Amino acid sequence: VTPDVLVNSQADDLACNEVVEMITDYLEGVLPAAEVRRLERHLATCPGCTEYVEQMRALAGSFQGLAEDSLPAAMRDGLIAAFRGFRNG
Amino acid sequence: VPRATAHDDEGLAAALRAGDADAFATLVDRQSRAMIRLAMVYVPSRAAAEEVVQETWIAVMRGIDGFEGRASLKTWVFRILTNLAMRSGARERRSVPFSALAQAEDTGEPAVDPDRFLPGDHALFPGHWAVMPARWPTPEEGLLAGETRGVIVAAIAALPVAQRTVIALRDIEGWSSEEVCEALEISAGNQRILLHRARSRVRSAIESYYGAREAIRDDAVTAEGTGATAKQETDSA
User: Fold this and answer.
1) Mean pLDDT to the nearest integer, B116-143
2) CA-to-CA dists, residue B15 to A77, B10, B29, B86, angstroms
3) Number of Cβ atoms within 10 Å of the Cβ of A61
4) Do the Cβ atoms of A66 and B62 come within 8 Å?
């Protein structure tokens, strides 16, 4: 039994399948401080979970390029014309 | 920031009351995309959603004098939208409140396939990775620059409607979690669960794609290696 294994089998060490369920709370900044310390202690020795966090971080807020079209131009212009008529008429 | 938003809201509401069409156009241009998305939770087509958004803007121009600033202007507009969309959707039996949809989608599904982990009774590493996530060969311009764009679009489209709406508002429209909670009238906890499930599924889809590609590339490397060996042999011969 190597020292690494001893570190990994500490009583309060998180399992990787627990870590993946905590990532969104972690990235959203709502994980309690004690849990953050536990999580970061795990990440320090776990390349798999470190990669996982990086992947989830890469997704967050990064799909702006997928925005779809807004209202059709005719409908939009019609609304603005209606606003002019309604508020000033 | 909330102060600035409130100030901005007050200014916008005042401008609308004063009949400032440019302010109205700004608001329409800023919010309509997300409104179409939310309306589509309740109505069956994009065209029907556009109509609901149109109705909402008409209600806004009529009702702006009654806006009291207790919620943000954005929240107020989205509440009107939700009511109109649900009323329209009721004709097609799609009038379940968003919070109920959210709850129905919270099935406790794990973020990662359980087969990827060692069993809970493993002697040394219970619940640790059996197959670790591999580094993604993401292009410098990001996940949307390469072929993964299509993978992401398909993965988002395949999500259950509440998850799809939350990931779209957060990661496509760039809303904050507070804005999403207010507009959809869900708790912060529910919002996070939906976001978590949605992002986890999109991550899995990207991983499956890259995984498949990685396997092909391994073959290519092997073939190249064989080629090189053959060439060396030829050279030495």
Assistant:
1) 90
2) 19, 8, 16, 29
3) 14
4) no
Integer angstrom CA distances of residue B59 from A83, B73, B104? 11, 13, 31
The mean-pLDDT minimum among A36-50, B58-72, B94-108 falls in B94-108
Residues B125 and A15: their CA atoms lie apart, in Å, by 8
> What does the pLDDT read at residue B79?
93
Tokens, residue B203 = 């991550």
Q: Is the dihedral of CA A29, A33, A39, A45 positive or negative?
A: positive
Instruction: Give the model confidence (pLDDT) of B166-203 as tens digits.
Output: 999 999 999 999 999 999 999 999 999 999 999 999 99
SS (H, E, C) chain A: CCHHHHHHCCCCCCCHHHHHHHHHHHHCCCCCHHHHHHHHHHHHHCHHHHHHHHHHHHHCCCCHHHCCCCCCHHHHHHHHHHHHHHHHC
- Residue B24 pLDDT more than 60? yes
Extract the tokens encoding B211: 């995984």
Q: Measure CB to CB from residue B117 to each of A16, A76, A83 and give the nearest one.
A: A16
Q: Give me the percent of chain B exceeding a pLDDT of 70.
A: 84
Who among A30, A55, A80 is closest to B203 (CB)?
Answer: A55
CA distance B116 to chain A (A): 9
**CA–CA gap between residue B18 and residue B21 (Å, rounded):** 9
Give the H/E segment covering residue B125: none
Spatial distance between the Cα atoms of A75 and B221, rounded to a whole number of angstroms: 55
Q: Cα–Cα distance between B123 and B46 in angstroms, integer?
A: 54
First to last CA, chain B: 74
Q: Which residue has the tokens 């490397």?
A: B221
Q: Is the pLDDT of residue B126 over 80?
A: yes
**Nearest chain A Cα distance for residue B67, angstroms:** 15
Contact B203, A60 (CB under 8 A): no
Predicted pLDDT of residue B70: 84
Q: Is the dihedral of CA A56, B154, B148, A71 positive or negative?
A: negative
